[in-house]
Structures are given as C-alpha cells and as structure tokens.
Amino acid sequence: MRSRIVGTGSYLPEKVLTNRDLESMVDTTDEWIVARTGIRERHIAADGQATSDLALLASRQALAAAGLRPGDIDLIVLATSTPDMVFPSSACLLQKKLGIRHGAAFDVQAVCSGFVYALATADQFIRSGMHKRALVVGAEVFSRILDWKDRGTCVLFGDGAGAVVLEASAEPGILSAHLHADGAYADILNTPGHVCAGKVLGDPTLKMDGGAVFKLAVRVLEECAREAVEANGLKLSDIDWFVAHQANVRIITHTAKKLGIAPEKCVVTVDRHANTSAASIPLALDVAARDGRIKPGDLVLMEGVGGGFTWGSVLVRW
Ligand code: ACO
C-alpha cells in the first residue's frame, strides 16, 4: 500500500501588506527587502481569523479538487507553530469546522519543515493500512508572533494555509520521505515565550540569527535533495519540479544552483507570500498544480527546513 496526492488547495488572507507599506512601519526599503529576500508582499490574517480558519478554506479547496466530501477523510495532520490555542490541537478544531466526527486528528510542530513532517507522517499511516484518506495541512498566522518593530524579522513572514488530500493507492504517489532534526541549533531561530501560571513568560516574538539560518538551510537542503534521489535510484536531472520551503529566494536559487537544478524548475511563491512557515510548501504546490505546471507523471521534490532545526524531503511521482 502506498499513498498518492489526489487534490491540493490553499488560502491566503485578504489583507496584503506590501514592502512599501512596511517602509512606513520600520526603517526599511522595498529595494533592500527585494534584493536580500525576493519578497515583495505578504498576506496578513484578519483579527479573529485563526489558524484553523485558514486551514478550513484551504482544506475545502483540496477536498473539492479531489472530488471528496469531508466525511471521506479519516485522518487530519495539521502542521503549525501558531496554533489557535494551547489545546485542543488546531487539527481537532479544523475537524470540528469540517463537521467530521470520526478518524484521528493531531498537530505536527516542526516549524518551517512542518508540512514535510506532516506529509511523511500521513504517508506512514496510510502505508501501514491504519488510515485510508488523509487531509494534510500547513497553516500559520506568523504575523501574530512577530516583533513589528524588528526590521530584521518582521519583513520576512506572512500568513496562509495550504492543504493536500492523500489517498491509499497501489501505485506511488509518495516515493520516499526523509526527515532530520538537530536540536543543537535551537538557538539560531526560536520564539522562546511560553504560558505559565496565567502569564506569558519569556519573549513571545520570533528571534533569528539570519546569517546562521541562511548557511544551514542551503547546506541541509542540498544534502537532503541528494539523499532523496539516491534512495530512489534517480538522478537530480530527473526532477521536474523543485518545491522548497519559501523562506528567501536566495536560499532557493543557491540550493538549486549547487544541485544543478535549472531556475525554471524551481517553484517560487515567496515573492507574493513571504515565508508562511509550514504553509509555504503546500501553498507553492497548489499554485503550480493549479496553473498546470505540475502534470501527471512529473517528479516533484519537496524540501522543508526550519526551527529546531528540522529539515527533510518528500519525493513524489505526481
Ligand atoms: N531593511 C533594511 N536594513 C535591514 C533590514 C531591513 N528589513 N534588516 C536588517 N537590515 C540591516 C542590518 O541591520 C544590517 O545593518 P548594519 O550593517 O548597519 O548592521 C544590514 O542590513 C545587513 O544585515 P544582515 O543581517 O547582515 O543582512 P543579510 O544580508 O544577512 O540579510 C537576511 C539578512 C535577509 C535575514 C538573511 O540573513 C537571510 O535571508 N537569512 C535567512 C533567514 C530566513 O530566511 N529566515 C526565515 C526563517 S528560517 C526558515 O524558514 C528556514
């Protein structure tokens, strides 16, 4: 038994915040942001719009694309680092909003690698025969954990959600998944605040050593792309679409260059979405599936990297 993606969906909040808008909020320029990151604009969730609300709209689209109803789903795995509440999980809140009352639902927390971790998890649950149809979602409201006075971080992130429906199939589908983590890098990217005795203790906004993150991301994305193709007896030149975590266009192009992957094979949405953490890969995947770039039979390499540090790949025959 293997698993196959049978539908994709995404959702971006209505409000668009451009680099020009940011110029009036912090000491920055559109030129600086575009040159260093490739980002031009990002979407920001409305007050009261929670992660599970974004996830719901992306999930409905993915279900419609798969020609399925919510009741057909027996597993929800939702990747997020910005859940609606401490508990229950945003996956359970999404399940409620979809009107599903059976199967399993839980969150995965691997920051910007979250979607790759969630997809790998759902793939294993389907391969084992435990579940038949999974909704795998990446959804984030990173705008809520940013220090909007810190120009070094607030210009980099946005809100959004992406979803796929994963179904049991005799044919893959998902060819392989490789996950990695090294907690020794916890200090270079984190949001250290936590809830204790009714108060938030520690700083609840995102902290980052941008240079260290950049170097680590390029190194591990290169390593795990080689690992994925070698494990499948394939070559890097066989990859039709490289869908990497959308943090920074320079991370994507540096990695692709080291791997010999042509720029036109890289799916890039970071210019319009910024870094939406766990939502970035399914958002990019949905854009490229809907605009007709990704076609049946194509080899798609997804790669995540993020806080933890965590990283990993999922290689898919579309
Ligand atoms: N506008 C204008 N100037 C800025 C801004 C800004 N928004 N932010 C920082 N600067 C200034 C700095 O203060 C510094 O000024 P100084 O020289 O007077 O001290 C100068 O620009 C250079 O700063 P650096 O941090 O050295 O700039 P760098 O070229 O490294 O770019 C960046 C910073 C874009 C953050 C880069 O390090 C990067 O992309 N790192 C990866 C981070 C990332 O993508 N994180 C996402 C989360 S992790 C993940 O998803 C994997």
Q: State the CATH topology of the largest domain.
A: Peroxisomal Thiolase, Chain A, domain 1
Query: Which spans have pLDDT < 50 for at least 5 consecutive residues?
Result: none
Helix content: 25-40%
Q: Could you give the count of β-strands?
A: 15
Shape: globular
Bound molecules: acetyl coenzyme *A
- Tell me, what is the CATH class of the largest domain? Alpha Beta
Care to give the gist of this entry?
The chain has 318 residues and is an alpha+beta fold. Helix content is 33%, strand content 27%. It has two domains: 2-171, Thiolase/Chalcone synthase (Peroxisomal Thiolase, Chain A, domain 1, 3-Layer(aba) Sandwich), CATH 3.40.47.10; 175-317, Thiolase/Chalcone synthase (Peroxisomal Thiolase, Chain A, domain 1, 3-Layer(aba) Sandwich), CATH 3.40.47.
Write the SSE topology.
Layout: E1 2-11, E2 15-18, H1 19-23, H2 30-37, E3 41-44, H3 51-66, E4 75-79, H4 90-98, E5 104-108, H5 114-127, E6 133-141, H6 151-154, E7 159-169, E8 174-181, E9 189-190, E10 194-196, E11 199-201, E12 207-208, H7 210-231, E13 241-244, H8 249-259, H9 270-273, H10 280-290, E14 299-306, E15 310-317
Parallel strand pairs: 4-5, 4-6, 13-14
Antiparallel strand pairs: 1-7, 2-3, 6-7, 8-15, 9-12, 10-11, 14-15
Helix pairs in contact: 3-4, 7-8
The protein binds acetyl coenzyme *A.
The site of acetyl coenzyme *A (ACO) has 23 residues, from helix 2, helix 6, helix 7 and strand 14.
